[in-house]
Write a structure and sequence with these properties.
The protein is an alpha+beta fold. Helices cover about 35% and strands about 15% of the residues. The protein has one domain.
Length: about 130
């Protein structure tokens, strides 16, 4: 069963300090989800060029974004002044790469915390 979307308020461009910050619904990713997307990335040599490869990393990142981003509330593009309400609109909007990166990091960071690896790990031995 997929986890429900969690409301995320990005820090991007001072959003968290704004009077009416925009929010984004995101699905936290488990380690398995992260691994599954990583396994989708493939590279191959570029024909006719030595030591050059091409990969599908951008396509996989876009798929991950579309799969894990839900409703976007209250976001208006700062340059175009158009409301953005879907993952596709946000991902394809110009000049928002740092916001996209922050959202992806939040999906992956939340997964790490949800796993409880730090909380449930054994204490370090004091040599006794």
């Amino acid at each position: 069963m997929q986890p429900e979307y969690e409301e995320f308020t990005p820090a991007w461009n001072g959003n968290r300090d704004a009077e009416n910050p925009f929010t984004i619904g995101i699905k936290p990713m488990s380690r398995g989800d992260i691994s599954r997307y990583a396994k989708m990335i493939h590279s191959e040599p570029v024909r006719g060029y030595r030591n050059r490869t091409k990969d599908n990393m951008q396509d996989v990142q876009e798929r991950q974004f579309h799969d894990c981003v839900g409703e976007i509330k209250g976001f208006v593009h700062p340059r175009t002044k158009t409301a953005i309400t879907t993952a596709k609109e946000l991902y394809n909007a110009p000049g928002l790469n740092s916001l996209i990166s922050e959202i992806i990091e939040a999906m992956e960071d939340d997964a790490t915390l949800a796993e409880g690896m730090i909380k449930n790990s054994a204490p370090l031995s004091d040599g006794a």
